[in-house]
Amino acid sequence: MQVDKNKVVSFHYSVGADGEPVDSSRDRGQPLEVLIGHGGIIPGLENALAGRAVGDRFQVSVPPAEAYGERQEGSIQRVPKKYFQNVQQLRPGSVTALGLREGGHRQVTVVKVGTTVIDVDVNHPLAGRTLDFDIEITAIRDATPEEIAHRHVHGPGHAH
Q1: Cα(first)–Cα(last) distance of the chain, in Å?
Q2: Could you tell me which residue ranges the PPIase FKBP-type domain spans (predicted)?
Q3: Which residues contact 130 (CB under 8 A, 6 or more apart)?
Q4: 141 has which bridge partners?
């Protein structure tokens, strides 16, 4: 079986940017599982996975345009503290998740912490950086109809 749209792919990865390590699934001991073709991972990585098979191990560099985009200067927003978790731990330079009105979260970098608001840079922390991945595909399976309808992988036993 090969990686294609509507397949669930499990893979281990290590990613770095500008020669410094950023993240690794091996540190958590579990591969990442993604539903291909539904925007769950950056486009450059999804394209690099296409057509691969279980056991394939490869490296790929993903430019900003196929990852988190170029940095947009002046993308600072002032946000009420109620939209953040663990506010008392936030400091300038902290990367945190910002709760969105429409649901979900967005990674932002804290610029300034005020009394009732926090100024954040809404660029993704990896915007403007080329990402270097080391990938090992560990499993591929057909997605369930529910996963396709919901546009994401469900948990163990494929429960939502």
Answers
A1: 25
A2: 6-80
A3: 17, 18, 61, 62, 63, 64, 67
A4: 8
Counting Cβ atoms within 10 Å, is residue 55 exposed (0-12), middle (13-18) or buried (19+)? exposed
99 vs 64: CA distance, rounded Å: 24
Q: Which residues pair with 2 in a beta bridge?
A: 53
Q: Is 3 exposed, middle or buried (0-12, 13-18, 19+ CB in 10 A)?
A: buried
Task: Tell me how crowded residue 85 is: count the other CB atoms within 10 A of its CB.
Answer: 11
pLDDT of the chain along its 160 residues, tens only? 999 999 999 999 999 998 899 999 999 889 999 999 999 999 999 999 999 999 999 999 999 999 999 999 989 999 999 888 888 999 999 999 887 777 777 889 999 999 999 999 999 999 999 999 999 999 999 999 999 999 999 876 545 5
| Cβ–Cβ < 8 Å for 95, 84 | no
Token pair listed for 54: 């279980």
CB 108 within 8 A of CB 95: yes
State the chain's mean pLDDT as an integer: 92
- CATH topology identical between 7-68+128-158 and 76-121: no
